[in-house]
């Protein structure tokens, strides 16, 4: 019998994808500082998540993320509770993102075209999410927020999309 699961997260989710393109791979002096900034930010976000779960820090809203490597460079798919929390994190001068963003902009003005960055934000209502993880293949939302038996939302994709968790 194949174990079939769906995500256990209750609520809307914001999917935030962010990545970099190596426009001049032969110039690590241009792209390495950009590449090094993301692990610092992710470390900060995961530390906050753990502290918030213990009740010793305000929850920033970060659920988790998955780091990937594509043909044009690395990217991270992140899951957030709300766009407001994502934007609050991005604009807080006391946290890692804003200083990294300012540093990138200064470097990009000095050496245009060395490295590109991009991001996409998707605000997904709970009833617009359908997931299936079979035989141990748990990734994405299921990996960051947990899973539950697929029957809780329906045996077929059409049933799960638009369903409310029981």
Task: Give the helix/strand layout.
Elements: E1 4-7, E2 13-22, H1 28-53, E3 62-70, E4 73-80, H2 83-91, H3 97-110, E5 115-124, E6 133-134, H4 141-145, E7 147-149, H5 157-160
Antiparallel strand pairs: 1-6, 1-7, 2-4, 2-5, 3-4
Which fold name corresponds to the CATH topology? Answer: Alpha-Beta Plaits
Shape by Cα distribution:
globular
Into how many domains do the coordinates divide? Answer: 1
**Mean of residue pLDDT?**
92
Number of helices: 5
Strand content: 25-35%
Rg of Cα set: 18 Å
How many strands, which pairing sense, and closed or not: the largest β-sheet?
Answer: 4 strands, antiparallel
Q: Percent range for helical residues? A: 25-40%
CATH class: Alpha Beta
Strand order of the largest sheet: 3-4-2-5
By secondary-structure content and strand pairing, the structural class works out as alpha+beta
Distance between the termini: 24 Å
SSE succession: EEHEEHHEEHEH
| Reported CATH architecture | 2-Layer Sandwich
Low-confidence stretches: none
